[in-house]
Amino acid sequence: MIRGIVANLWLIPAVPLAASLIILSLANSRRNAAATLAIFGQIVALASSILAFSLTLQTHGFRSVHNFTWFTFGENGLRIGWVLDPLAAAMLVMIALVGLCIFVFSVGYMAEDKNFTRFFAYLSFFSGAMLGVVVANSLLFLFVCWELVGLASYLLIVQRLQRKRHSSPLASVTWDFFSAFSGSTAAVAHCSFMMAAAVALKIQDSLRSVLAPHLSRY
Fold it and tell me: What is the pLDDT along the chain (218 residues), one digit of tens a residue?
């Protein structure tokens, strides 16, 4: 059972992302369907997160990793995966729970917005990307999910800008773009350096390679 839950941990971020894609295919008039799909996807993510969190409480120091080879180039293989430990599980529950509260609140708050359907698509997209950041076990997977978070936040801010056209939202969009761009540039440089140095992109391997010289002194 434990192995099955960890192997399918990717479904937690995948469900809101799938809901987002389905909502994007709906017409603007399908407001109720959009809200229902978004909330349902978030409920599924929350229930799965609670199940994963309860699993981590059964064993002291629980930690389980699922990695697979995405593709190979030459003699090297690019491995990505996800990790489940008490910290990751707690963050999954918190993000899914807070997200669900935001989803429910937004049904009334955005009721008069003409882009109601698109808003819930972007919100589900943001939630799925955030959940992906939490479970990522490789720098590449973390980088992709982080970029998706930046894209989702940018889309949400732009939609807000279309609703209220004044300088403040424009400043927010500009700041969001440059902060995301600077962070992304640093992440790309770091991943490129790790690959050039033939170091695995798995996070625990990266930390081990950095900390090993210092820990060897003790």
Answer: 667 777 788 899 999 999 999 999 988 888 899 999 999 999 999 999 999 999 888 888 788 887 777 667 666 666 778 888 899 999 999 999 999 999 999 998 888 878 889 899 999 999 999 999 999 887 778 888 888 888 888 888 777 666 655 445 555 555 555 665 566 666 566 555 555 554 455 555 544 554 445 444 44
Rounded to two decimals, what is the model's pTM? 0.76
Q: Would the CA dihedral through 82, 86, 88, 92 be positive or negative?
A: positive
What is the distance, to the nearest Å, from the Cα of residue 119 to the centroid of all Cα atoms in its chain?
A: 17
Torsion on CA atoms 158, 155, 20, 18, rounded to nearest 10: 180
Structure tokens given for 43: 């409920």
CB-based contacts of 14, cutoff 8 Å, min separation 6: 128
Helix (H, G, I), strand (E, B) or coil at 77: strand
- Residue 45: half-sphere exposure toward Cβ, Cα within 13 Å: 38
Residue 218 tokens read as 């003790």
Burial of 187 (0-12, 13-18, 19+ CB in 10 A): middle
- Alpha helix ranges (H) inside the chain: 2-7, 11-24, 31-56, 86-109, 116-135, 139-163, 167-196, 203-215
